[in-house]
């Protein structure tokens, strides 16, 4: 097992955001965490990447307990993240953003840069453009490409479909599949359950800080429990609207 | 509405002209740049001449105000720029480090009688240490919260100095020694190493030397891995951390470097001033230096220097208008914020950050939309 999250609890002040979540990710898999707003998906991911501390439980990565390791060292250990809301450096060019992704590494990145530009030809066209001036989809591509520059063993993706047009979502998801095919394990957090379940091998359904169901992704596609996790609002992008 | 358009138009033309000059500079070959640098230094050394002074400051002694406030503000602004402009940490108590440097010079100089140069080194070390002391507990805070804590730190230093009788209390310290002189060295009729009471020029030359060293160091840091890490922290701290940047350590480093520069200036200033007291280190000075950095173009060294010069010089230039000069000063600041909201000479990177909405203003704490952006971009953050 490459990444194992064991019964973690996370608090924002006194409020418990995560009340005992356990997730396992095997090498070569795409695993997805789905659930409605406030289910604790992003918090789980932030805890794994080290941006949030945990109250109890542990995170084991590659045989090593990383629960107390600061975030920047987890990158060296092999966890790469494209953060929520993309987190592209707005003032840096596409090229500089990608180089920031390789911050922990030394040596020649030409081959890695070429690979990212090959995966995302759009980024190659925009090489000298400032990150902040690009469209949402392009920024998402940049965030993923930048995370790949660190040569991660596990790629953590936080809602890559957020705010994107359906066509762009398709495109991003097919690239995620390609990245996985080339040997990178992916842990994907998504609100867009339909899309995520089609892509992933296994899935965990989160609801108010707990795992309510885990199963192979294909089995969950028509599962009523998944619909229940979205407060009975049906699947996919209708769900948040139904809440509103 | 029409008026707003013409204003917008003027702003754009101004910024396009600035881009043109910038592009030209980027294409300039290395040797030509060195000539420009050399000319700038020579220009700085020639500044305190009478003929320039009669226009620049008809009401006060030009050489004196070149040292304080102008030169002092410039060096302080360069120091604060490391913290605010490069690492994006809003520091409202920068004067504290200037005070620590000043008091280091005053106390060690009068009590232990050490040499100025030795005190300069010790003062820089002390300030770096106080920067780390302030940073260690507070740099876990972000934005506005950090600003409030640093503001408090600035006041604590001043009030502690005022209430501690063993370091002079409200009267401060008198009879601070000057740097060691070499009265025999004479160049163009000026005794350039004679640090006395009457002639401010030797101090000014010393300040220019300090500024040049500081500029070279800061520029080198900016271009290094450290500078890239600072830029990443400024633009998105969480993203920087997940890129593998040890954000906390680099923020501490920015604080320590900024503090050291402020402290070095404090030592030099106290060595000229003869006496210092806690009221020399008011909050207003922190605010003024911050205004200089933001107005000049945070993150861009030439801009920051220009900003500090303008902020220091304008009130002196219009001293003849007595209290109305502050009115003019305020009007100029407002006009600048209308026509050049990103600063007099902004860096291109900062401009892109500002346009993105929250990125650039993250440096100033609040998530406020930039001049060109709209509310929803910020809301989506």
From TrEMBL, chain A:
Q: Name one GO biological process term.
A: L-amino acid transport
* Alphabetized Pfam families for the sequence: ABC_tran
Entry keyword annotation includes Transport: yes
Q: Which UniProt keywords apply?
A: Amino-acid transport, ATP-binding, Nucleotide-binding, Transport
One GO MF term: ATP binding
Q: Origin, by domain of life?
A: Bacteria
- Which InterPro entries would you find in this protein's record? AAA+_ATPase, ABC_branched_ATPase_LivF/BraG, ABC_transporter-like_ATP-bd, ABC_transporter-like_CS, BCAA_Transport_ATP-bd_LivF, P-loop_NTPase
Q: Taking every annotated instance into account, which residue ranges of this chain make up the domain ABC transporter?
A: 3-233
| PROSITE patterns with a match to the protein in the record | ABC_TRANSPORTER_1, ABC_TRANSPORTER_2
Kindly give the PANTHER family that the UniProt entry links to this protein: HIGH-AFFINITY BRANCHED-CHAIN AMINO ACID TRANSPORT ATP-BINDING PROTEIN LIVF
Which protein family is it in?
Belongs to the ABC transporter superfamily.
Q: What name is this protein filed under?
A: ABC transporter ATP-binding protein
UniProtKB/TrEMBL annotation, chain B:
**In terms of one coarse class, where is the protein primarily found?**
membrane
Q: Which CDD domains match?
A: TM_PBP1_LivM_like
Q: Which domain of life is it from?
A: Bacteria
Keywords in alphabetical order: Cell membrane, Membrane, Transmembrane, Transmembrane helix
Its record classes its membrane topology as: Multi-pass membrane protein
State the InterPro entries in the record: ABC_transp_permease, LivM-like
User: GO terms for CC?
Assistant: plasma membrane
Segment Disordered: which positions?
Answer: 353-381
Instruction: Write out the annotated subcellular location.
Output: Cell membrane
So where does this one cross the membrane? Answer: 34-56, 62-82, 89-108, 114-136, 203-221, 252-271, 283-312, 324-341
GO MF, one annotated term: branched-chain amino acid transmembrane transporter activity
The protein in question is named Branched-chain amino acid ABC transporter permease
Species this protein is from: Streptosporangium carneum
Its lineage reads: Bacteria, Bacillati, Actinomycetota, Actinomycetes, Streptosporangiales
